[in-house]
Amino acid sequence: MRTIDEAALRTAVTAAHAVDTMRDAFRADGEGRAHVPAVINLEIPGARGEFHVKTAFIEGVPYVAVKIASGFYDNPSKGLPSGSGLMAVFDADTGMPAALLFDNGFLTDIRTGAAGAIAADVLAPPTIGVVGVLGSGLQARHQVQCLRVVRAFSRLVAWSPDEAHLRAYCDEMRQAGYDAAVAASPEAVCRATDVLITATPSRAPLVRAEWLRPGQHVTAVGSDSPGKQELAADCLDRADLVVVDRFAQCAAFGELRHALDAGLLTRHDVHAELGQILAGRKPGRTHADQITIADLTGVGFQDTAIASKALQLVVS
Amino acid sequence: MRTIDEAALRTAVTAAHAVDTMRDAFRADGEGRAHVPAVINLEIPGARGEFHVKTAFIEGVPYVAVKIASGFYDNPSKGLPSGSGLMAVFDADTGMPAALLFDNGFLTDIRTGAAGAIAADVLAPPTIGVVGVLGSGLQARHQVQCLRVVRAFSRLVAWSPDEAHLRAYCDEMRQAGYDAAVAASPEAVCRATDVLITATPSRAPLVRAEWLRPGQHVTAVGSDSPGKQELAADCLDRADLVVVDRFAQCAAFGELRHALDAGLLTRHDVHAELGQILAGRKPGRTHADQITIADLTGVGFQDTAIASKALQLVVS
Prior knowledge:
alpha/beta
C-alpha cells in the first residue's frame, strides 16, 4: 500500500486544487450525493487525550477516506505535537486499501480554508476591499490563501490575542505580497473589512452584532466544539443570511448553537446548508447590503474529497 | 510507522496468546475499564459494499486500535476478496501512530475464536467429551483451536450445509490430531456433544430447543447482523444461563434478538455479560446439569486487545 507523507502532499495540493475540490464536494452534498455517517469520538481520560474518526462516501468520487485524528493535550510537555493522525484511503468500488496519507493535519487545514473560500464565493460581495482576520494560526493563513482563489484583494487587517503571533503573521502575509496591518481590537477589524474571517479557539464571543456592516460577509471557522464561540449570538440574528456547512453539527457545536440556545433563531431562520447553494437549490447573496454569516464546523465528506484529490494528484 | 503483514501476525500470535488476551480483555470490560464508542457503518450502495470502523480503549492496555473493515460482495467476480481492511494502532498515552496491521481479518478471526473459548471456560462443564461444530469455515477452525487451550478433548462431530467443505474440514481436523466425524444433520451433532459451536452464516435456525441436553454448553458466533440466526428462539428460553458479550449488540443482532422479539425472554433473563463473569461479578456454571448458551457478536475492545498484544509480540 502506498504511503504519502506531508511534504509530498504539500507539493501536490495547492489552494486552487482545494477550492475546486470543495466546490465539487459541497455541490455533491447539496445534491444528496454525500453519505456521512456519525463520527466516532473516543476519550482517553487518564491521558487528557481523544481520538476522532470520520469517514464519508461521495457518489462519483473514486476513493473513501477514513480520517483518524488524535488530540493529546499533555504531549507538548513530552516534546510531541498535541495533534496527530492519518487518513486511510480505500477504493470506493472495491473497498481495497489504496493509500495512507500522513498529512499531519495539512489536508484538514487546507480543506477547511477552501470551504471558507467557497462560502465567501457565494456569500461575499463580488468585489471586496479589505479582508479582516481574527486569529494568527494555521487557519488565518489557509483562509486567506484560499479566499484569494475566488476574490481579488490585497489589503488585510488582523487581530489576535497573542501579539507576538499576530506580528509574525502580518510579517509573513506582507512577505506573501499582502498589505497587512495589525489592528488594536476585534472591533477595529470588524468595522474596517468587507470580509471577516474568525479563526480563533475563543471560548467567549469576540464579535458584537453592532459592529457588523451592511454588505459584510463573515466566515466563522473557530468553533468546532460545544465550548467555543467567536460571534455574539445576536450577530446571527442581525445577519440577513446565516449559512451552515451542516445544520446538525452547527446546531450542536457551531456558532449557531449559541443563537439557538439564546432563542434568537430557530432552525427555520437558517438560510441554507452551503451545499444547497452550490447545488443551485438555494440562492447565495442577492443584495449588496446583506450581512451574511457562514458557520463552518467541518464535515466528513470534505476529508474524503480532499484525500481523493490528493491521491489522484500524487499518483498522476 | 511500522507495517506488519498477515504472515508475521500469524507467526507471532498463537491461540494461547489470543485466549489469554481475551480473558484479560473481558475481565477489563467486566470491571468497567473498556471504553467502546458506537461503530461507524458506511454503505456504498452502488457497489454492494460497506465499510465498518470500530475502536475502543481499555484502561491498562498500551495501544488503541482502529479497525477498518470492508465488505464488497461483487469483488469475487473481479478476482478480489470480498473482505478487506486493516488495523491502525496508536499509542494510548500520546495518540501517536504506532503500527499498521495488514491482517486480512486474521486478528478478528482469532480473537473471535478466543472469545468462544473464554465463554466455554466459564460455562462448559470442567470435563468434556465430544465437541460439536456446525459450520466448516474459518470459525469452525479457530473456535476448536482456541477451545483446546481451555479444555482437553479429541473428539469432534461436525455438520455443514456445504458437504465438500465439511469433508475437507474433517480431513483437516484429523490431520491436526482430532478424531473428527461427519454428522448427517445439525440434530445429530447437537444430540452427541457436550460443547456445541455454531459458526455458520445461517439465516434460519439450525438448532431446536428439544435437542439440547442437560449439561450442554452452546457457543453461538454466527449471528453478526439482524438477518442471521442459528438457534431457534426457544433454545434461549430452555437454557439455564444465557450469557452475551454485549447486551446491546446481542439484543440488536445476536441470537438474543430473536428470543426478545418472540417475547420468550426479557433483558432480565440474560444471566450476564461475559465480562461480568470474568470479573467475578456474576457466577459462571454452578451445576452439572445446566444448559448454557453464549451469544457472541464481537465487541470493539476485543480488537484493541488483540492488536495491542500482536504488536507487542511482533516487536518483542
